[in-house]
Structures are given as C-alpha cells and as structure tokens.
Design brief:
Keywords: Signal. This protein is α+β, with helices and mostly antiparallel strands. The chain is built from three helices and twelve strands; from the N terminus they run αααββββββββββββ. α1 runs antiparallel to α2.
Length: 213
C-alpha cells in the first residue's frame, strides 16, 4: 500500500511541486542504517545507470541542430555488463554552446547483478513532472563531454518501494571504452539523498572507479 501511495504522489498530487524531492524525503532509503558496503553498492549502481543514459543521449544528439529536439528509445542495445536495460525513452534538446538537455519521457527500467537490487527492476527518471530541475545536461568540452544531473531511482526489491535521488556536485566526464562497450562517468562528484534528507557523497576517479564516502 505504501508503494502505491507514493506512486500516486509522484503521478498526481505533487507534480510540479518538488514531487521528486518530496517522495524521496518520505519514502527514500534509510541511509543512516546502510553499511559502507551497501552505500558502495548504491553508488556503483547509480553511476553505472547514469553512464548508460549519458552515452545514449550523446549518441541520440548526433547531427541535430540548435533548437531541435529528438526522442530515442532505450532497450537491449543500451545494455552493458552492469546494467541490463529493459525499456525507456529519452527526450533531448540541442541548445547553444554545444549543450544537450536530457529528460526521460519513459523512465529507464533495468536490472543489474549489483547485490543491492536483489534482481528486481530499477527505474531511473529525469522527468520534468518530478520537478523542473530533474534532468541531465551534456556539454561538449575540449577532450570530451561534461555531464551534470539530478534524477530519481526506484528499487522495488523490497515489499515497499525504495526511492533515492542523485545529483552531481561537479561535472563528470563521460568516457566510453570501445573494447568493452562500456560507458563510465569519470573525474567528478555527486550526492545520493534518501529519506529525511539523509545524504552521502560519491565520487568517480579518472578510471571510472566509484567510491562511496
């Protein structure tokens, strides 16, 4: 019942009124009771999923002009060793200064071998319905793309849905390993927020290794 109530809050009552933040505050993961190992698992899962959407958005934006928008479906072709994508859809807008704004028109649903998921479906959402600041931004800079974001994830592994949000505190570099077909976020920092505004930071090094702090 709690899961259904929170879902209804997202869909109706709180739309346009900091819906994502409100849902996470009331139904988010209990960060204060997570072990360091669990924090590490949440951080790695989150970073890996973000990298998949960032790479998909980078590919989707190829060749579109400033002011144009485009929608691209997410599916098995976006799957990596860490994130098994079932479905989703992103909407991108090409802005000036080589900047792309990304929203999800359909949340990316995926599974992962990551232990914290228990094999259940996770969704990652950058919908404007959550709040206007829920999005991902890709900016092309000399040497690569800088990625910033604020998004919400939902894990249904337990009897009640578990929500958390993640937000970049610096830009992160998007890298793509051609040999392993694996995108990663490098050289940056972000934060994960759970219920009652509990938080922990995570960072990515130059090799894409994720560390929960």
């Amino acid at each position: 019942m709690k899961k259904l109530c929170l879902a209804a809050m997202v869909a109706t009552v709180l739309v346009g009124c900091n819906a994502g933040d409100e849902v996470v505050e009331h139904g988010g993961i209990d960060i204060n009771n997570l072990s360091q190992t669990q924090k590490q698992e949440y951080a790695e899962l989150t970073a890996n999923a973000l990298a998949v959407i960032a790479q998909a958005a980078d590919n989707c934006s190829n060749g579109i002009a400033v002011g144009e928008t485009k929608q691209c479906d997410l599916g098995a072709s976006n799957t990596t060793a860490n994130i098994i994508v079932a479905k989703g859809q992103i909407d991108i807008e090409q802005q000036e200064n080589q900047t792309v704004i990304v929203h999800t028109t359909k949340a990316m649903e995926f599974t992962s071998p990551n232990a914290v998921t228990n094999g259940e479906v996770i969704s990652l959402n950058f919908s404007e319905n959550l709040d206007k600041d829920y999005n991902m931004t890709l900016k092309t800079l000399p040497g690569g793309n800088s990625v910033t974001f604020k998004g919400m994830l939902i894990n249904t592994a337990d009897s009640d849905a578990k929500y958390w949000s993640t937000e970049s505190t610096t830009g992160l570099e998007l890298k793509y390993n051609e040999n392993f077909k694996l995108p990663s976020l490098n050289n940056g920092n972000a934060v994960i927020t759970g219920k009652d505004n509990q938080k922990f930071n995570w960072s990515a090094d130059s090799n894409g290794n994720i560390t929960a702090q």
